[in-house]
């Protein structure tokens, strides 16, 4: 996280607080116009700083993508026909993104993992904004289209931004960037990537992210589902 994500909102908030105090003081002294102008201006600066701070909190849920790196380990255990339990270990990435392990029930023949990627314009990277990624969701996938349409589905959020963070509100950088891209042209591209693999009892997989998206690899010595696919599989 670059320092100005916090310095700028703090400076704007301080300016807004000063204007608000001066505006309220002017109102008490009977200067209605000047007091209202200062109060409204101060409140506006405080609102802008709050939005910037919420955006900074959301950006922290993304990780820097500067090279190919492992992002998760997935282990599957079969509980029944086309029904598995997946253990997902998300790799640590700094103080804001500690390693996390969670269990997810999945229906289907394959698991599918998805990620969001934010790529910034060159002028934004000069300010310290590297390409960012965030694991988004894990779901079960059927090989047969008919089952994919009609059978029981399972999907789970992987992003900590989708869980309760204790705040009464939140702002999504992903949604804001798509909605206001024409007005604040800092984002170069927004895209989602996915990878999927067949599930088997006792199998273990590694998920990597590259500049082109997600790649999943089976650990051969932990595969018990017959001959594994010949190459890492990814999809979008």
Characterization of this structure:
This protein has 236 residues and is α+β, with helices and mostly antiparallel strands. The chain folds into 2 domains: 4-59; 64-222, no CATH class. Helix content is 30%, strand content 33%. It contains 5 helices and 10 strands, in the order ααβββββαβαβαβββ. Helix 1 runs antiparallel to helix 2. The longest helix has 28 residues, at 32-59. It is elongated, with a radius of gyration of 23 Å. The two termini are 28 Å apart.
Helix and strand arrangement:
Layout: H1 4-28, H2 32-59, E1 63-64, E2 69-80, E3 83-90, E4 100-107, E5 110-120, H3 122-126, E6 132-141, H4 145-150, E7 155-157, H5 173-179, E8 187-198, E9 204-210, E10 213-218
Antiparallel strand pairs: 1-6, 2-3, 2-9, 3-4, 5-6, 5-8, 6-7, 9-10
Helix pairs in contact: 1-2
Which descriptors apply to this entry?
5 helices, 5-stranded antiparallel β-sheet, 236 residues, 2 domains
Helix content: 25-40%
Structural class: alpha+beta
End-to-end C-alpha gap? 28 Å
The outline comes out as elongated
Could you provide a short overview of the structure?
This protein is 30% helix and 33% strand. With 236 residues, it is an alpha+beta fold. Strands 1, 5, 6, 7 and 8 form a 5-stranded antiparallel beta sheet that branches.
């Amino acid at each position: 996280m670059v320092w100005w994500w916090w310095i700028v909102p703090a400076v704007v908030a301080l300016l807004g607080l000063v204007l608000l105090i001066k505006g309220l003081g002017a109102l008490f002294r009977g200067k209605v116009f000047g007091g209202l102008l200062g109060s409204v201006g101060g409140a506006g600066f405080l609102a802008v700083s709050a939005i910037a701070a919420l955006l900074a909190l959301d950006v922290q849920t993304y990780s820097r993508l500067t090279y190919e790196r492992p992002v998760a380990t997935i282990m599957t255990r079969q509980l029944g026909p086309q029904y598995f339990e997946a253990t997902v270990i998300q790799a640590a990435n700094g103080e804001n993104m500690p390693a996390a392990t969670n269990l997810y029930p999945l229906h289907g023949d394959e698991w599918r993992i998805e990620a969001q990627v934010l790529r910034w314009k060159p002028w934004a990277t000069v300010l310290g904004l590297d390409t960012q990624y965030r694991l988004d969701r894990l779901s079960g996938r059927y090989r047969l289209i008919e089952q994919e349409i009609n059978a029981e589905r399972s999907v789970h959020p992987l992003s900590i931004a989708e869980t309760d963070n204790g705040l009464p509100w939140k702002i999504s950088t992903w949604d804001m960037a798509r909605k206001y891209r024409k007005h604040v042209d800092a984002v170069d591209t927004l895209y989602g990537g996915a990878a999927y693999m067949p599930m088997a009892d006792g199998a273990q997989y590694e998920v990597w992210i590259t500049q082109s998206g997600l790649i999943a690899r089976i650990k051969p010595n932990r595969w018990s589902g017959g001959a594994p696919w010949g190459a890492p599989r990814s999809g979008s």
